[in-house]
Design goal:
two-stranded antiparallel ribbon, 155 residues, mainly alpha, 8% strand
C-alpha cells in the first residue's frame, strides 16, 4: 500500500528513523556504499527532477542503488523535520519530476515503486541471505582445541 503523497514525507521520516536504529541495516548500507563509492548523489537527485528526459540509474549494481536511495530518503526526512528545510516539498518535487502522471498520488506511487523500492528489495535480500548464513552457523559446532580447528553438525 502506498501512503497518500500528503503524508509521504512523514512516512519516509519514520522509516529513516527506524532504519537508523537498526545496526544490522546500517552495516548493510555502509557495505553497499563501498560497492560503488564514486556515485554522484547530487547528479542522481537532479536526474530525478528532469521530467523531460528519461531516468537512468547511475549505478551499475543493486548495491550501488541502495545508498543513493538511502541518501534520498534521508534528504526527504530532513525536510520533514525542518533540519535543512528550504521550504521545498521534496516529495512533490521528486515524484512529479520523475513521473509524467498528472495526478500527484500517481506520481508518488510510480516514484515509490521505481525509485524507493530497490532499497527495500536490497535490504530484504541481504537480510534473508544473512539469516540463512546464521541458520547454517547455528547448526554447526565450532571447536578450537589443542588438535586444531574443528566443525561438526549439531542435530
Amino acid at each position: 500500500m502506498i501512503v497518500p503523497w500528503g503524508t509521504a514525507s512523514r512516512e519516509v521520516y519514520l522509516v529513516v528513523d527506524w532504519i537508523d536504529r537498526q545496526p544490522a541495516l546500517r552495516a548493510l548500507l555502509a557495505e553497499a556504499e563501498r560497492a560503488e563509492p564514486d556515485l554522484d548523489f547530487d547528479a542522481f537527485q537532479t536526474s530525478l527532477s528532469n521530467r523531460y528526459g528519461t531516468f537512468s540509474w547511475p549505478s551499475r549494481t543493486e548495491e550501488g542503488r541502495a545508498p543513493l536511495v538511502w541518501k534520498l530518503m534521508r534528504h526527504i526526512a530532513e525536510a520533514d523535520t525542518g533540519e535543512g528545510n528550504t521550504g521545498e516539498d521534496p516529495v512533490r518535487r521528486f515524484a512529479s519530476g520523475y513521473s509524467r502522471a498528472r495526478n500527484l498520488q500517481d506520481c508518488w506511487r510510480e516514484f515509490t515503486e521505481d525509485i524507493l523500492q530497490p532499497l527495500f528489495d536490497f535490504l530484504s535480500e541481504r537480510v534473508g541471505a544473512e539469516s540463512s548464513v546464521l541458520r547454517v552457523l547455528g547448526v554447526l559446532s565450532w571447536d578450537v582445541g589443542d588438535s586444531g580447528f574443528g566443525v561438526s553438525v549439531l542435530k
